[in-house]
Fold this sequence. Notes:
This is MULE transposase domain-containing protein. It comes from Triticum turgidum subsp. durum. This protein is elongated. The protein starts with 13 loop residues before the first helix and ends with a helix. The chain has helices at about 15-25, 45-65. The chain has one domain. It contains two helices and no strands. The chain is mainly α.
Amino acid sequence: MYSVAWAVVETKTNESWVWFIGLLIKDLDINDQGAGWVFISDKQKVKFIYCLIQLLKRFSRVDGAA
């Protein structure tokens, strides 16, 4: 499994997903209607990592360790 692409968008909407997937299809030259391709999002991990980073920052400010 490889990380292929990521994007920064203003908000997570159907329109932004259609835009992103459209670019991905074009860049990867997928012309067989996606047969054999699977895209997996790991967004739940990103939220978890973001929470850990915020906790680390808070603890660093309190006692100067970390």
